[in-house]
């Protein structure tokens, strides 16, 4: 473990700015994780309003506090705001990247592996599955809207058990089987995503949601971003699937699940790392844009984008524009650089393989 | 070629249908009631007696009493509603009760009881949202003229309903045909009838078209400039790969690529439009209000100087992105065998560059260029908000802020159509330029 970390660090020194990027990301994560501790340690609080200390420049002292980065329009300490913003950005980025990663990776692997003809069902089975998906979604929505009760839980579980049981039963009947067009459906969905103006959709959905929180923002973002992961996971799976060792594993009776998790996934990971790093940057940019515009983010939550938006009202206070923007820029640069490095690394490996 | 274009156009339709479904779904989930907003714009007081009548008329006029989509999957306790022929106020009342899972025949019986009352009294009862509320309202002075017998009948009916609620439910698929809201909405959209704004009752189409001009102009100018700069820079750096200028400019461009546009814009505004930081710093004009003029060119003539700064802000990160891509493409092409052959047989450097290298390496960049445009639409939203440019982005932002949902969803539709068309044009262009790509 230590060896591989040291090895990575050594490789990093050959790539321009990569060490710097890793340090930036590391520091950002540390600040985000220990934000409350850090704030109390430094003796700064963002929440207390002191209108008499409005717009103090950096390195100035108010009655009892020393403001290293100055204060904003309401007299709140900027350093504390920056620390809090790091935490908000981290929570949103981590939440939406993990949701989209899990969702995208599993769907991408499955559609890449099975394609349009990997799962074969006869006509009765297919109709059964489609109908029970609709009915299942109906009872699930009823659970979400009216709360879980025996009147929707029992039918829901009943449908699931019934479908699985009937599917096994009908499978034995001698009917002609057709492929389930998983890939086709998902490809249409990805095409649709391509035509959607991401920021416009996110803005309007975020404004429509009544209970705004940073998690609702994360969920909206991941609804759009999981498809990027799914697309790349699918493409990688299609490539890896054709390799000889997968064929031989398959012919020696390894189960599909095992094949996907232990043989295909590890080989698809390098290119997924590029997307992870890239998406981290994109999500942070998106989150700060949203909070800069003041849409979707809860009012009480402080973020880098929101502090930066405050700078527009007071052009005299350059520190309000420079520091939060710098933070967004540094983290964004670090992740873009990391993504660039991963992409180069992978390209080199691919060439070496050939 | 012709068949290829037709094929792509046909593939383009399902995407648009799905986009319109998403926009329509979002439109029907807005928190405010558009009918109420429209009526208050027309000056109908929402507490007056006339309001309910006007509301019903407006609902029918807008076709909002129709089912939402071609088909629906509803619970058995609400699906019967679409088949009944009730007035819209009674229907609304029935829907409220049905959502509470009251029995169908009970609800209909209660409504028929209420319909035996006079107009005014009936309306007072039909705005209720629960049977309990009906009982409370029975004691109000407006209903004094209702006979005691009638009141007790309603009371006993409500009492019966409470004990007769349904619990088990199942989905029902019902087909509504073409008489539905989505169908009318999409037909009106194609005809260009987008309804009126919920804030100032202006036609949405005119508002959209006026702001579209600005956004398109901003995009065309900034993309032309950034395209030209990155073309020159990318090719120069690509053929001079590894020189000091290449390494430095590449590193700096990578930095610029990561700069958030809204940060750059804020910095520019703070440092270069005010005289806060020295006398020379207010070199650009401030972000003020734009003059209200009717003519586009007249307005452009007056406010063109305000576009300099936004264009700079858009161009810098775009150049950073595009020129790096063009450079990579040139390097990739430069290492190929045919270029080496041409060089070794003595073809002049200039000819290699002009006839082989540049045309061949620019074909793949067309897709990249098309990929910049949707992103540019998104980032122009923030730029327009910051610089107060009256474009689509700012219209969108302000409509969201003022809950003017009648504008938001047409904008989403238009912008997605634009995005899809751009990809379509890029694909066709590539197919046309590159004879190696097989069409069909």
How many domain units of chain A? 1
Largest interface: A-B, 50 and 57 residues
CATH architecture of chain A: Orthogonal Bundle
Radius of gyration of chain A: 25 Å
General form of chain B: elongated
Number of helices of chain B: 19
Give a count of the beta strands of chain B, DSSP E runs of length 2 or more. Answer: 2
Mean pLDDT of chain A, nearest integer?
85
Radius of gyration of chain B: 31 Å
Main beta-sheet strand count, sense and barrel state of chain B: 2 strands, antiparallel
Q: Enumerate the strands of the largest sheet of chain A in spatial order, edge to edge or round the barrel.
A: 1-2
Give the integer mean of the pLDDT values of chain B: 82
Domain unit count of chain B = 2
Distance between the termini of chain A: 28 Å
**How many β-strand stretches of chain A?**
4
Beta-strand portion of chain A reads under 5%
Shape of chain A: globular
CATH topology of the largest domain in chain B: MetI-like fold
Task: Note the main sheet of chain A.
Answer: 2 strands, antiparallel
Describe this structure in words.
The complex is a heterodimer of chains A (354) and B (440). With 354 residues, chain A is mainly α. Chain A has one domain: MetI-like fold (Orthogonal Bundle). In chain A, the strands form two sheets. In chain A, strands 1-2 form a two-stranded antiparallel ribbon. Chain A has a two-stranded antiparallel ribbon with strand order 3-4. In chain A, strand 1 and strand 2 form a beta hairpin. The radius of gyration of chain A is 25 Å and the shape is globular. The mean pLDDT of chain A is 85. With 440 residues, chain B is mostly helical. Chain B has two domains: 160 residues, no CATH class; 236 residues, MetI-like fold (Orthogonal Bundle). Chain B is 68% helix and 2% strand. Chain B has a two-stranded antiparallel sheet. In chain B, helix 5 runs antiparallel to helix 6, helix 13 crosses helix 15 and helix 13 crosses helix 17. Chain B is elongated.
